[in-house]
Amino acid sequence: MDAQGRGRAGDNVDPADQWVLNPSTGKYELRLDAAPEPAAPDPAPRRSRRAPTAPRDDTDTRELPTQRDRRSSAAAKDAPRPGGRAAARKAARGGAGPATSGRRKAKPKKSGKRKALLWTSGVLGFVVLAGGGGVFYLYQQLNGNIAKVDVGIENDAVSDGPVNILIIGTDARSGKGNEGYGDNGSVGHADTTILMHVSKDRTNATALSIPRDMITNIPACPTKQKDGSTKTIPGESGVRFNTSLGQEGRDPGCTWRTVEQLTGLKINHFMMADFNAVKELSEAVNGVEVCAAKDINDPKSHLKLKAGRHIVKGEQALAFVRTRHTVGFGSDLSRIELQQQFLSSMIRKIKSDAFSSPSKLYDISQAATKALTVDTGIGSAKKLLDLGTDLKQVDIDKITFATVPVLDNPQDAATVILDKSKAEPLFKMVQADHMLAKKGKGKGKKKAPVKKAPPELVRVDVTNGGGPLGAAQETVDWLQNAKAAKLSTNAGNAPAKLATTRLEYAPNQADQAATLADWLGLPKSALKESTTDAGDRVPMKLTLGKDFTAPGTPIEAPTETPDGVQNVNADDKNVCAK
After folding, report:
1. What are 320-371's pLDDT values in tens digits?
2. What's the pTM?
3. What SS3 state is found at 290?
4. DSSP character at residue 62
5. Is 440 buried (19+), middle (13-18) or exposed (0-12) by CB count in 10 A?
6. Which letter, b or e, does each residue of 463-497 get, where b requires 16 or more Cβ atoms within 10 Å of its Cβ?
């Protein structure tokens, strides 16, 4: 029901002035009849009033005391208090009277549900948590803001295991003021894609940026049509990743399936937003701080910044996350680094002052839900809140942004291809639920670097003791061609099957073993050192066990960010666009 339906069309209602403490629950709630509550339960029944579904936020703050007096007096008539009506009116005006738990007496402590709101209000500002307090949400209004797409997969909002949320930013020109952005006539491709992985224990998160111009394979995907029928869009091989959305009528479910195929991670939910998400969210938090290491003047994104730190919002914020031609190498990879800087800064901003007033909290939740298109599994404010509450433990310093490693495409300079030697260990690390961490960041002394033999000195016999058919020859081919280890030999099948891969070597072959273990991603448990040295031409023995899948794919997930993987911590304030 709107304000006119409630007989309040003439009132300007500021949501910041409607939050009151409910003594029976100890939580702050958003109410229309925001009068101070009695300390003890009222013996007389109250006339119930429906909470507002669409409070207005355009009130001049100079009018708030008058509005507060008017609402408090009206509510006092509905709620008899010890001492009679006169005492109630006096208490509503702030005078002496019975002890109350008034709105202005104590500030709410941050707790789970306010943390949870960051998972719904952070959308492209990012699905991340920071603070909290018990609040009553305007579910009906927020529900009306949220668009959803049935992708043929509906997971529960809350999961007991790790959570993977696909964040998609489209280049569609939909929305007021976006006519000059994106590709002219674009159907809305996957212009920005980030896979957010939250650990099973909810202590850390990894955000993987996927380059839009990466060549990949897109699987066939079913899509819901307007008439309710399902149409399967055929898959494609060797095409740009960003065509997984929009092209040929593909919906977010196609991007969902493409990312699952690429990373080996099962996705729980997706959140999609257009250009307006960046503009409106940056306005809602009153600007986001960014840093430029040099002057930026990009005529294509219309971004002009002097070197140094700046607060950007609205159109300027959108220009910052879209610019690429005057930073780094001028590629989409450079733009990804700017986006990661912006999102990290927005996370910090939301954490620091999103809850400085209920009005600001309201503005952020409105901007976020209006910007959202989600899957049916989280297609309501209640489900989004449930998701946020589940993920509330993640702190900013435990969130790491990383970019999926790629190489220049020798067939097309405008595109890139997956760098499997770096990407596979990274994917395996995330699959194993390991937190990304920068090397050398931990406490204690750094370990001395392991001496490794050059490829031409690595001598090894490879046998298959439980790996895939032909694994020994495949591994030898990979060692000789990809790693230049010409002294590797296929020794056929092992005499017995092994559950795990094993590398046997002599003490004087430790440097060779270190090189081979690094190439194959062998865990320490796979290394078996003998007690006596080997002769000059005696090879090491590598037996591929049942845990072996393919050469170059680590046997064990790394526990630190693999070398060569671009990454930045969300709490790092010293990142600047170069």
Report:
1. 998 988 888 888 899 999 999 998 898 888 777 655 666 777 777 788 788 8
2. 0.68
3. strand
4. G
5. exposed
6. bbbbbeeebbebbbebbeeebebebbbbbeebeee
